[in-house]
Amino acid sequence: MADFDYDLFVIGGGSGGTRAARVAAGETGARVGLAEESRYGGTCVIRGCVPKKLMVFASEYGGIASDAQGYGWSMERGSFDWQAFSGHLQKELDRLESIYRDTLLKGSGVTTYDARARLRDPHTVELSTGEVLSAKHILVATGGRPVRPDIPNADLGLVSDDIFGLPELPKSILIVGGGYIACEFACILNGLGVDVTQYYRGAQILRGFDEEARGLIADAMSARGIDLHTGTDVIEIGHPDDRPSGAGTNMYAAPASERQSGAEQGGQARPDRGGPVRVKTSTGREAVFDAVFFATGRAPNTADMGLEEAGVKLGRGGAVAVDKYSQTSVPSIYAIGDVTNRVNLTPVAIREGMAFVETVFRGNPTPADHEMIPSAVFTQPEFGTVGLTEEQAMEQEEIEVYCTSFRPMQTAFIGRPDRVLMKLVVSKETRRVLGCHIVAPGAGEMIQLAGIAVKMGATKEDFDRTVAVHPTMAEEIVTMRKPVRSG
Ligand code: NDP
């Protein structure tokens, strides 16, 4: 048998790669090397879930003073200091990165390489440092990256990687897109006091999620001051002073908030990415924003890695094609996480990494389980979801829909119009809850727990015989007696 430098070489030190490496090394005794070209922790820890959630927290404090006044407190709203927050955030990310590199990886006996790795053949990687290393198994866990739309000057816009390190917050921003990242950052930046406009090309934001929930979130976002335009796509982008001839007087044919920021910026020298940008839309709208943020999707990191040369087949959009065990077309090479573009969520990448270790290093073939994955979109209000949408379930079988939307006690008391939504999609035949959708403050926390019952195959009657916790919002999930629709 060939003598390899390592039993496993992992490319990418994000959530999935780190978990697989440290469990293989720490719990099965495998000799493991890992290369990371950027920062340990990857998208989730450094430029995704973690800093995003901290920004969600930061953005929610702005409304506290006025809410507290409604409850009898005398409290005035202060101002938000981006530099203070951002300095603290960068320190926290440094701390987390060192936990990934030192505690989790080195502490488990993984040898780390701060370098870019390319495949040379099915058992060999070459590093940007010039080192060449062999391994019995190679795990590709290189994640994904944000992509801008294919229009001229798109690089004038920011992407999610740029947001956490902004030197200062823009006064106005255009967010392009209607997915997770677009909607979450529209709410975050709005909460931090930025004048937010959002353009989405489709009819309703959050495509693929439950229709009723999408509608409620879109209404809530607009009610909170986000200038949301659906059916609107960006067709042209440029510096404000590089107007194509003929744009003339139509330049600021946009709402007052947009006009103001355009007027403030007009005629100044334009910095590169992140500076004021003129945008023209498919609907004929033209406006200037202090910044444009493209949240228009992500692509797998597979370019220039030697994958195809080594025989690894790529699928749609350049994602690594894998089987249910995360094995690629080359038996010694596996891939997990966003680079495979299956379900692009951190906990899923971690599960795929664990299943890989179980399969390859414990001799127990274990497919990654992609059924009934609960997830949350951290909009304001939050959205927690597990299982099928009403629309998906209806395609599949006869269903009953149990749904309630109401003004929760805490904010109704102070006259806020906020509404929440609790919805169960139930199979008529088996009575199993096929989907649960919650739009409410804290919905991410709620769906984690509801997700256990749904994953276990709970029926509507199981929910019904669970006693309500009173008074809470979540109690409605066990007190809905009559279906609002069936079919
Ligand atoms: P999404 O795929 O969710 O959304 C991309 C959005 O951009 C869609 O609204 C899409 O429109 C639009 N879009 C795509 N291309 C263009 C274009 N050329 N011009 C205009 N609009 C365009 O991607 P995200 O980047 O928001 O998120 C990536 C993934 O990251 C998510 O799918 C999710 O798995 C994960 N994620 C999870 C989070 C969480 O769990 N809370 C948070 C953030 C990310 P259309 O709908 O018409 O295709």
UniProtKB/TrEMBL annotation:
Residues 235-280 are annotated as: Disordered. NAD(+) binds at residues 177-184, 297. Residues 373-480 form the Pyridine nucleotide-disulphide oxidoreductase dimerisation domain. Residues 6-240, 276-353 form the FAD/NAD(P)-binding domain. GO terms for molecular function: flavin adenine dinucleotide binding; glutathione-disulfide reductase (NADPH) activity. It comes from the Bacteria. The active site is at residue 470. One of its GO terms (biological process) is cellular response to oxidative stress. Keywords: Disulfide bond, FAD, Flavoprotein, NAD, Nucleotide-binding, Oxidoreductase, Redox-active center. It holds the Pfam family Pyr_redox_dim. Gene3D superfamilies: 3.30.390.30, FAD/NAD(P)-binding domain. The keyword Disulfide bond applies. FAD binds at residues 53, 338. One of its GO terms (cellular component) is cytosol. SUPFAM superfamilies: FAD/NAD(P)-binding domain, FAD/NAD-linked reductases, dimerisation (C-terminal) domain. Its cofactor is FAD. Disulfide bonds join 44-49. Binds 1 FAD per subunit. Belongs to the class-I pyridine nucleotide-disulfide oxidoreductase family. This is NADPH-glutathione reductase. It comes from Roseivivax isoporae LMG 25204. The lineage of its organism: Bacteria, Pseudomonadati, Pseudomonadota, Alphaproteobacteria, Rhodobacterales.
